[in-house]
Amino acid sequence: MSATLKLAVGSLLVGCLVLGLKALAWWITGSVALLSDALESTVNLATAVAALVAIQVAARPADSNHPFGHHKAEYFSAVLEGVMIIVAALFIAREAYHGFLDPHPVTAPVEGLAVNGLATLLNAVWAFVLVRQGRRLRSPALEADGKHLWTDVVTSAGVAVGVVLALVSGWWMLDPLMAALVALNILWSGSKVVKESLSGLMDEAVPDRVLTEIREIISCKAEGAVEAHDLRTRLAGKATFVEFHLVVPGDMSVFTAHEICDRVEHAIHDAVPDSRVTIHVEPEHKSKHSGIVVVD
């Protein structure tokens, strides 16, 4: 089992535990705000399942129907997660509305907040692990899941503050008010996740830092060539696709041109893991004099 898949399974187990703890906190207290926190955790669990499935699909090798691989499957999971976050926000808003109509005191707040606090701590630790490992493994699904969990941590802290303030002040309207704020916060979080995931589905280019590194590699490692132009990159899950035209002297042998391409390709592979490099070799009269200058 790959590291990515192990983390996805871990998310599923953590999601079940956290949901159970938050549901218990709501059952103890009857708090609308804690109910909203538990509802968000149902989304965490559902998206953990979606991420697990997407990661398994993304790991499949290329086939005749998908010659470039299945890397983008993880972006679909991230989009689904964002949509489900938005749906959860609407459910929470509904509960907050009913809480405004009929506010009531919270029972056993200390016990409920202690249980909810334990769930929040567990979420915080796992969110840190997912974001860090998701970036290291270049997994959009894991990173999106981690960011969502971190949003859950922030909202859980806000919920706890709201319940404490309601308890101290006796103004129980603060309980549904905090639930409404939770709904607004995760609504913003869900829209952000969807936006970032759609960028991946739209073949977004690599970050400027990586693009600069690729250009420098071509310039330094393509010794013997004249120039490179029409450099294009795109991200697809873990994979990074790099394409460009390499101009060589017209009298250069195919063998020598191929050696240059191999040298450049290996250097890009070393700098950009899971890269897929395509180089189109052209004779000198195809120079555009506006691309990447090769250092002799």
Protein architecture, described:
The chain is elongated and about 85 Å long. Helices cover 68% and strands 10% of the residues. It has helices spanning 3-29, 32-58, 73-101, 109-137, 140-169, 174-201, 208-221, 254-271, and strands spanning 227-236, 239-248, 275-283, 292-293. The chain contains eight helices and four strands, in the order αααααααββαββ. The chain has two domains: 3-201, Cation efflux protein transmembrane domain (Alpha-lytic protease prodomain-like); 208-293, Alpha-Beta Plaits, CATH 3.30.70. Strand 1 and strand 2 form a beta hairpin. It is an alpha+beta fold and 296 residues long. Helix 1 runs antiparallel to helix 4 (109-137) and helix 2 runs parallel beside helix 6. It has a four-stranded mixed beta sheet, with helices on one face. Belongs to the cation diffusion facilitator (CDF) transporter (TC 2.A.4) family. It is a multi-pass membrane protein. It is found in: Cell membrane. Residues 12-202 form the Cation efflux protein transmembrane domain. Its main location: membrane.
List keywords for this structure.
296 residues; alpha+beta; 2 domains; Alpha-lytic protease prodomain-like; four-stranded mixed beta sheet
What would CATH call the class of the largest domain? Mainly Alpha
Number of helices: 8
Summed up, the domain count is 2
Low-confidence segments, given as residue ranges, are none
Beta-strand level of the residues, as a percent range?
5-15%
Second CATH tier, the architecture of the largest domain: Up-down Bundle
Q: What would the principal axes of the Cα set say about the shape?
A: elongated
Main β-sheet, in a few words?
Answer: 4 strands, mixed
Assembly annotation: single chain
* Beta strands, count: 4
What do we call the CATH topology of the largest domain? Alpha-lytic protease prodomain-like
Distance between the termini: 46 Å
- Please bin the fraction of helical residues: 55-70%
- Element string (H = helix, E = strand): HHHHHHHEEHEE
GO cellular component, one term: plasma membrane
Subcellular location: Cell membrane
Protein name: Protein p34
Transmembrane segments: 41-61, 73-93, 113-131, 152-171
